[in-house]
Batch of 3 targets.
Target 1
Amino acid sequence: MKLFATLLVAAVAAGFSGDLHAGDMFKGRQLYNSHCAVCHGAGGQATMPGAPSFARQERIIKPDFTLLASIRTGKNAMPAFQGILTDRDILDVIAYIRTMN
Ligand code: HEC
């Protein structure tokens, strides 16, 4: 009972804390469709040679922070998104691409 109360308090605290951000995949989907789908494909089947297909889990088996860094600064043919998307936006997009399988 005491454990249950502790878990409940922790869950409520997490739910109301604006800073503990779990990626919002619905917002992530909108951002993905407008900024990423042109190369990575609307359903995660890449349309550009060399771009990973997220529907096949290509290149996303890495921590969020590593992916965030690549998306922020860009990589070879991929443009940088720093200044276009906030880190929070990018984390939302990452949450969405992790659901594409
Ligand atoms: C102009 C085409 C283009 C756009 C737009 C684009 N990408 Fe990419 N992306 C690429 C290419 C090409 C690569 C492979 C880069 C390489 O390693 O050579 C890549 C790689 C990646 C990777 C793998 C990075 C890694 O560290 O291995 C991720 C994740 C990714 N893109 C996410 C995104 C997201 C999210 C967006 C939208 C915010 C986006 N890309 C927009 C072309 C694009």
Note: Residues 16-20 have pLDDT under 50 and may be disordered.
Target 2
Amino acid sequence: METYHDYVIKDGKFVGKFEEMYEKFEDPWTQSVQPNKYSRMAGIVHLKNIQVKSILECGCGLGYYADWIYKETNVVPKSVDISAIAIEKAKKIFPKLDFEVADICVDLEKYKEVDCIVFAEIIWYILPNLKDIFEVMKTHFKGKYLIVNQVFYKGSQKYGTEYFTNMQEFIDYVPFTLISKCEATSVSDTTIETSTMFQI
Ligand SMILES: C[S@@+](CC[C@H](N)C(=O)[O-])C[C@H]1O[C@@H](n2cnc3c(N)ncnc32)[C@H](O)[C@@H]1O
């Protein structure tokens, strides 16, 4: 049977049909229960440590992490996603938060006023654009912060292995100064949750 994964990455190949996916599936990645709590919590600890006044959350999906960030930091993040359907749903679920449609691979510069960019489980979907995105950050976000929450796989990663396969390889790939990092898993999990913070 078809699952939401078929619309994202299939057999190690990027598909990226996010709009169709949100049309067909109510709660992809079980966002409403916010799994990967270690990395999400760590991302919030990073945000609290730097006490930023403004946040851009990239790949917000249905908005559940935006809500969590707001509750913990009192900052309403500007939360963006490439899927108009996801944004429409997020606005309905969290009417007091701030959502809009944007493709982070082309629109990032528009948000240059924010103090901190959060990538919450989006890295795999923007891999070919990462170098260009880092260039935009260097030009328009110098001195500001980048927080990346990302799950890695215990030996089962099929897509993007030529870029990085664990947190340390990811850190080595990012051209910014590492400020803090957190890595966590439970013995029975097939994934490793990570959260890293860089100064751009
Ligand atoms: C794994 S979900 C993460 C959802 C949410 N951040 C969370 O942690 O629950 C990844 C999200 O990234 C969005 N996305 C993928 N490519 C994007 C892009 N280029 N710009 C903005 N959002 C994108 C997808 O539509 C999807 O909602």
Note: The pocket of S-adenosylmethionine is lined by residues 18, 29, 31, 58-61, 64-65, 80-83, 86, 103-105, 120-122, 125-126 (CB under 6 Å).
Target 3
Amino acid sequence: MALYNDQGIVLRSYSFGEADKVVILLSPNRGKLRTVAKGVRKTKSRFGGRLETLTHVDLVLYEGKNLDMITQVSIIEAFPSVREDLDRVVAAGTMIEVADVVAQEEEPARRLFLLLQRGLRALDDSGTHPDLVTAYLLKAAEIVGVAPALSHCAGCGAKEALSRFSFAEGGVLCDRCRTPGSYALRPGVIDYLAILAGADLSALPDPDAAMSGEAMGISRRFMEYHLERKLDSMELIDV
Ligand SMILES: [Zn+2]
């Protein structure tokens, strides 16, 4: 009998059979963890309420053939304020979605886990900073190895005349390397993105309303380009 301990943040869950739920978590130790919680949709379930999306839980699992079975759950952190506000729910939805797409099964994901935990904590503590999701996306890109070049040309390495941004080339381009499909950027946006990429999620600099929208658009589309899928944060998570 193989029982083991692990922890994770619940990414999503769905109904399974008559009364069970499949619960997908991000574990720092095992990456994406697919589990089953038996009987949790019955009213007398002991721990159904502890397995909602976003919740960071400590688990005891029983190793199964396909899905490991949750036998005990305790809440480590529930991020209650995130659930009370629509903007926070939307922001958390994007964070969760990116973590879900990027994480692999049976591949430790310590940095990704910590990023998600810090992102949810920042949302829970201080609400939606306009640049929080942007900073999260840039850090997630770095973790998966596709960090955009922001301080030098992605083509030749030059540090000057950086005027364009290309999703395909992986960051900013100088005047000489600019490609037909690259975007002209508002002056200052690149520096703004570079600061966000290096900032602590819980201590982001004061937002600049003139930059936030474009910075978000670029980082979001950059991530979509590299993940080869749309991010539907408007699809609200069920909390
Ligand atoms: Zn260049």
Note: Residues 153, 155-156, 158, 173-174, 176-177 surround zinc ion (CB under 6 Å).
